[in-house]
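It is worth pausing here to work through a concrete case rather than discussing structure prediction in the abstract. The textbook approach is simple: state the sequence, then state the predicted structure, then interpret. We follow exactly that order.
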Amino acid sequence: MKMPTFLATLFAAAAMYRAAASAPAPPAAPARLDVKAVTAEVQKRYDGAADFRARFSQTLTSAAMGRKTSSSGEVAFKKPGRMRWDYTQPDKSTYVTDGGVLWLYEPDDRQAFKQDLKGSQLPAALAFLTGKGKLASEFDIAFADKSGRGGPGDYVLALSPKAAEAQVKTIVFVVDPRTFDVRESVITDGQGNVNDIVFADIRVNTKVPDTQFKFSPPAGVRVIDTAKLGK
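Step two, the predicted structure:
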């Protein structure tokens, strides 16, 4: 079941821009900011987004198995607390929540898992994306070695939770220096597993319909309540 792993994967969104060589000279690169200012600009960027949607690609690296798995699809968020991840490759699945219940729907297996979020504490970075958390309050943040990530001028931030979390040991954000979108998010958990998510074709404040975040299991689908597993 993918539900526990998923809750540690939900961070950030980004768009990338490029000027053609024949176009007029681009404006001068913005002055470099310190880490506190970059963090504040990232927070401001997402505080100002009522909703956003994007395409994503994800690579999971298992520390125990030494194996990588890749997937891709589309994601949408809408404040307060709503999100939807539609995986299209390699298998179809959907994660969706209206802020109260998180569903994982696997159409090929005709089953759906549900988890009550009302009484649970979401990871801090998930709260940030859904409009409830503050990065500077939840994480110790510093500039990180790029290690081949991002493009020229991108900021690379290393985030460590101030309160220990098994699901999140460290996060790396690759931040666009002009828009302060997060181009890439790399999450390492307490077991050393790595979850790398890259976002593209982001669209902000497009009035994503509320119906996108509602889910009712189709007829014939087996519903599994995760709170009752193991009991």
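Step three, interpretation. The longest strand covers residues 51-62. Helices lie at 3-6, 35-47, 124-129, 135-138.
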